[in-house]
Amino acid sequence: MYIVIVGAGQVGSNLAKSLLALGNEVVVVERDSQRIETLTEEIGNCVLNGDGSTITVLEDAGVSRASIVIAATELDETNLAVCQLAKHVFQ
What we know:
- By secondary structure, the protein is of the alpha/beta class.
- Helices cover 47% and strands 20% of the residues.
- A four-stranded parallel β-sheet has the order 3-2-1-4, sandwiched between helices.
- The two termini are 17 Å apart.
């Protein structure tokens, strides 16, 4: 299953690790360079640098082919934007 997670905080990074361990294909979108570096060391090159609440970054992450999109940022507004874009722009 292809899964996109927006946000690599504690929830997003732990979820990514668990989903990868179950054999899923996972891409994590994060804009904080320190979190990107840390998560890349832990899970490899499946971390994309960018603002997950923008259409272009979601396109780069492959949201149109994702089975699941998870918004796990620290901001409710960003999580809502991610979910709305995933639903209405990428179906």
